[in-house]
Amino acid sequence: MSNCKTISVCNQKGGVGKTTTTVNLGVGLAMQGKKVLLIDADPQGDLTTCLGWQDTDSLGITLATKLTDVINETMTDPMVGILHHEEGVDLVPANLELSAMEFNLVNAMSRETTLKNYLSQVKNRYDYVIIDCMPSLGMVTLNALSAADSVIIPVQAQYLPAKGMTQLVQTISKVKKYINPDIKIDGMLLTLVDSRTNLAKSTVEALRANFGNQIRMYRTQIPIAVKAAETSSKGKSIYAYEPNSTVSKAYAEFTKEVLADGRKKERLHSHEAR
Ligand SMILES: Nc1ncnc2c1ncn2[C@@H]1O[C@H](COP(=O)(O)OP(=O)(O)OP(=O)(O)O)[C@@H](O)[C@H]1O
Fold first, then answer.
1. Which family does it belong to (predicted)?
2. What is the pTM of this model?
């Protein structure tokens, strides 16, 4: 069994910090010596541009290529086209071609497990695969959930994010029931926290009221900061762009929490030991 842990960073609400979290968790894990593969599962290609590949249209091989190769059984080398970022993470990039996969996957054999099939061909080289999901719960996101050992849900600090959360949690429950029995929700990460307001506190209270102890909240909260917004266009992580910022420190702390959850095999061993 592969010792790699696959995490989907998922929330169908847009602009809650999925991409920012994927970049800074991924690079954070790489800084701790982990081998990390990031997957851009959003046709907008934000993760790809955030990491410095601005012209996504010119990319010859993307996630859409890999999924198509699985569907058509035309995969030759699964590592071809994986990009290498100078901060130590690898990336399967995306561009608009991925939106066609929403349709193409529907008629594919094993339509929910096409991404899982691709990852099974590369994950033995990595400690972590982190999938940056798009803001919708369509076929590509379903593939990301079907391939995941666990889900991290970034939640923007605002009143009542609970309605969308209920839909997301229900979707994950269905994936667990029908496709991926081992999936678990690792936790919700509060993002874009403005310490001048009480919104973070009320959001946590609203989430606790709606989900009780069902889903854990990470201790770390990610503050809102101009430097973090600027980083998106710099092609680097917050650690490289502004190492002493509050956001850099918060993502480093969050990375430690994720590391403390352990990888798949370690978790299984500790479970067996009990
Ligand atoms: N901690 C932060 N402080 C300030 N701005 C932030 C922070 N985190 C993210 N942003 C900015 O907020 C916007 C949305 O963030 P991001 O792209 O990470 O969210 P997303 O959930 O991936 O969005 P989408 O759903 O569109 O894929 C971006 O412009 C990003 O630069």
1. Belongs to the ParA family.
2. 0.95
